[in-house]
């Protein structure tokens, strides 16, 4: 597990391109046959991915957590961005198709990941946060029939925003949040831009009460996103490619413009789960 420490906004404004990428960009997450994890001191979030191929992958705590098992004092959200796969939680198997998600509550001990087809493996992207109580483990789907242990994303949590004229026509799909899938502090979802739109989260904002991690995907090899971060009057950018993630501290804006439309997963951790709790930044005030 890679460890990342927190950075002060006073220092970040002096970072070179290389240092900025070293601190905040997460690359090479999806490696066949491996579980890759990055632990950030910012709200103690863990960002990672499991890509099982010819055999299941077992999630363990590792020495870094000083825990008997990974979710002894944590909760976890997962979204599959690859082929069909299975997550087994304490003996119960859950099947995830492309863009299906899961919430796994604190206290679940034995967690493993498997792919249906090793040549088209599942790509399980995960965010994990410290937890103080246990909430039910659920499978999350955008559509389908509701059944035991399965949550279908409610219509009010599929939000269409923006316009093509403003280049930000997009659909926000909220997976983990109060009223749909309960958690201690983790809020998680996915936003898909419509063809012809390239801007996400614009006008931009900050939220001092929680940090955020973005994963950009559904981009061809030659495409990129200019991810904007930093204080509103001290903005910086990171060039990001397909299936790369970026850590956004609570004091930083988090927005992007792509060379074409793309999709991104957002995961938030902190003391407030209210989705609309944000401090808006007027476009004219950006520097």
Fraction in beta strands: 35-45%
How large, in whole angstroms, is the Cα Rg? Answer: 18 Å
User: What is the assigned CATH homologous superfamily?
Assistant: Jelly Rolls
Unreliable parts: none
How does CATH name the architecture? Sandwich
- The main sheet orders its strands as 1-3-4-11-6-9-12-13
Order of helices and strands: EHHEEEEHEEEEEEEEEEEEEEEEEEEE
Helix content class: under 10%
Function: Catalyzes the isomerization of 5-dehydro-4-deoxy-D-glucuronate to 3-deoxy-D-glycero-2,5-hexodiulosonate.
Keywords: Isomerase, Metal-binding, Zinc
Pfam family, one: KduI
EC number: 5.3.1.17
How would you characterize the overall build of this protein?
The chain is mostly beta strands and about 290 residues long. It has one domain: Jelly Rolls, CATH 2.60.120. The chain is built from three helices and 25 strands. The chain has an eight-stranded mixed beta sheet, with no helix packed on it. Strands 2-22-19-24-16-15-14 form a seven-stranded antiparallel beta sheet. Strands 5-10-7-8 form a four-stranded antiparallel beta sheet, with no helix packed on it. Strand 14 (about 160) and strand 15 (about 170-175) form a beta hairpin. The chain is globular and about 55 Å long. It starts with a strand and ends in a 7-residue tail after the last strand. The mean pLDDT is about 95.
Summarize the structure.
This protein is mainly β and 287 residues long. It has helices spanning 9-12, 17-24, 62-65, and strands at residues 2-4, 25-26, 34-40, 46-51, 57-58, 74-80, 85-89, 92-96, 101-104, 111-115, 124-130, 138-141, 150-152, 158-161, 170-176, 187-193, 199-200, 205-206, 210-217, 225-231, 234-240, 244-248, 255-258, 263-270, 279-280.
């Amino acid at each position: 597990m890679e460890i990342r420490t927190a950075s002060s906004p006073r220092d970040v404004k002096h970072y070179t391109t290389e240092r900025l990428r070293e601190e905040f960009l997460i690359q090479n997450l999806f490696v066949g046959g491996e579980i890759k994890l990055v632990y950030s001191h910012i709200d103690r979030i863990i960002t990672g991915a499991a890509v099982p191929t010819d055999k299941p992958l077992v999630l363990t705590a590792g020495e870094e957590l000083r825990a008997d098992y990974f979710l002894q004092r944590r909760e976890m959200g997962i979204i599959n961005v690859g082929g069909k796969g299975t997550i087994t939680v304490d003996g119960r198997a859950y099947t995830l198709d492309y863009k299906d998600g899961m919430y796994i509550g604190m206290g679940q001990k034995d967690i493993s990941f498997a792919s249906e087809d090793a040549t088209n493996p599942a790509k399980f992207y995960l965010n994990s946060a410290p937890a103080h109580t246990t909430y039910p483990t659920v499978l999350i789907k955008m559509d389908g029939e509701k059944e035991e242990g399965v949550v279908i994303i409610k219509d009010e949590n599929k939000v269409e925003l923006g316009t093509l004229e403003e280049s930000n026509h997009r659909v926000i799909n909220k997976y983990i949040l109060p009223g749909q899938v309960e958690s201690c502090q983790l809020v998680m979802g996915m936003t898909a831009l419509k063809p012809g739109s390239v801007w996400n989260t614009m006008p931009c904002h900050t939220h001092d009460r929680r940090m955020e991690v973005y994963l950009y995907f559904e981009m061809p090899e030659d495409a990129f996103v200019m991810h904007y971060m930093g204080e509103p009057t001290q903005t910086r950018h990171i060039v990001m490619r397909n299936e790369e993630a970026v850590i956004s501290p609570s004091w930083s804006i988090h927005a992007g413009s792509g060379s074409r439309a793309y999709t991104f997963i957002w995961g938030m951790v902190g003391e407030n789960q209210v989705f609309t709790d944000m401090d808006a930044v007027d476009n004219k005030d950006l520097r």
